[in-house]
Amino acid sequence: MDITNAEFTSVYLFATEQAKVIGFLHYADLVLSIIIALIVGGILAYVIVRFREKPGDAEPVQDHGNTKLEIGWTVGTGLILAVLGVLTAGVMYSMSPPLGTNQPDVIVIGHQWWWEYRYPKLGIITANELFLPQGMNLLFEVRGADVVHSFWIPAFGQKMDAIPGHPNFLFYKPIRSGIYLGTCSEYCGADHGLMRIIATVLPVARFNAWAHGQAQVPPEPTVAQAIHGKQLFMANTCIQCHSISGTGAKARVGPDLTHIGSRTTLGSGVIPNDLPSLASWITNPQKFKPGCYMPNMRLKPADAHDIAAYLETLK
Ligand code: CUA
């Protein structure tokens, strides 16, 4: 996965069906506004030129009010607003149809300062890098673990607040494969700017292959350094915060590390995921993400390296 080719920020990419519908409303409003501006501006320009005072003109006739005109522009404005209101309500309804008995396909949980992604129907829990199948209408449940965050991928259209104790729901139907970047968009503390979202939309067959891999328990490490790294991981406080399937690490405070080796970045998009970067991150996460809740464990460099070697085996 090459995130240097990811498509960032533009709300005009329309990577989901919902973003396309919002785009339609945007253009409809824009065209209507331009037409109104041209009509009003045109009449104004005509009046300014046509009724300009010429030398010797008499005092104009003084009058007050014109009931027909006033009713006309009040009703006209009301009709324009009614059209916009109906269009807007229709788009809002299509964004948030009744949930019925649907179960969420993806549960997004905003944490200080990273994203947890759960796929309850697939038995997958992962972090920071979101994968989605193309062409399926997916129900998202958005939650907050600690404070209010906001989940926003501009190319997907709608953003949604992640509020503790108040799950929100929205649908996304990704229609273009590709990698789309997003970010937390509700100020949530020190590392608000370092809560990046990397969403990869894959054709269904490739998504299924990804999901199959993520649902597996990772194999035991076979290289001496990685075996030692696993012992250190299980003996240190790592397991107070992190989970790795098939091991004694079952905590849900920090990101699930079951397949951390398959991710492109570390620390919610802060640094690339490779052995030297992961070893430096484990040695002192604060260097890359000041304020993050993972402490400096004061590990010996060789031990940090071995733990990183173990984690990199978790593909
Ligand atoms: Cu999370 Cu801002």
Oligomer: single chain
* Biggest pleated sheet: 5 strands, mixed
* Cα gyration radius (Å): 28 Å
Contiguous runs where pLDDT drops below 50 for at least 5 residues? none
And the CATH topology of the largest domain? Immunoglobulin-like
- Whole-number count of domains: 2
Strand fraction equals 15-25%
**Which structural class best describes the helix and strand composition?**
alpha+beta
CATH architecture of the largest domain: Sandwich
Bound molecules: dinuclear copper ion
Tally of strands: 12
How far apart the termini lie comes to: 14 Å
Strand line-up of the largest beta sheet: 3-2-1-5-8
The whole-number mean of residue pLDDT values reads: 92
Describe this structure in words.
The protein is an alpha+beta fold and 315 residues long. The protein has two domains: 1-48 and 66-211, Cupredoxins -  blue copper proteins (Immunoglobulin-like, Sandwich), CATH 2.60.40.420; 224-312, Immunoglobulin-like. It is built from six helices and twelve strands. It has helices at residues 17-50, 67-95, 204-214, 224-235, 275-283, 301-312, and strands spanning 106-111, 114-119, 124-127, 129-133, 138-144, 149-152, 160-162, 168-172, 178-184, 196-202, 265-266, 271-272. Helix 4 packs across helix 6. The longest helix is centred in the first third of the chain and has 34 residues, at 17-50. The structure holds dinuclear copper ion.
Keywords for this entry:
315 residues, single chain, binds dinuclear copper ion, five-stranded mixed β-sheet, Immunoglobulin-like, 34% helix, alpha+beta
